[in-house]
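Handout, section B. The chain below has 128 residues.
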Amino acid sequence: MWEADCGSIHIEFFRTMHIPDSVPSWKESAWSTGILVDGRIFFPADTRFDPDLLFWMEERSHPEFIFHDCQSFNGGVHTGIEELKSLPPDLKKKILLCHYSDNFSNYDAEANGFYGMARPGVYYNFDL
C-alpha cells in the first residue's frame, strides 16, 4: 500500500486484481490500483470480484461509501453484478455501483441491497 497527501486529503493506493481473469491474484494481473480517500471513501478500481479485499478494507478502515465497478456477467475485466449481490447486506448497503454498461439503465440497485448507482456527471459531496 502506498500513501500520499494532497492538501488536506489523505489517499491510500493499493493493487487490485484486473486482467486476465485466469490469474489468481493481483500480483500476476495487469497493473491496476484502487484508492481509499481519508479512510472514508473506498474505490477498488478496475477489479475482478475480490471479496477478500472488500472484507479486509471493511475491517481495517470501515469506509462509509464504496464505489465499485460492475458488469452484467461474471468473469472478464470487472466484477459481475451477481457476484456483488452475494456480499453481506451491511457491506452492500455502502456500495454505489459504477463503471457499468448501458444495459444497467433500469437496474434497481437499492432493491438489491446496494446504496445506489453512481451517475456520470454527478458531484458527490462527502463533507462532514
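Note. The CA atoms of residues 5 and 11 lie 6 Å apart. Compare this with the example in section A.
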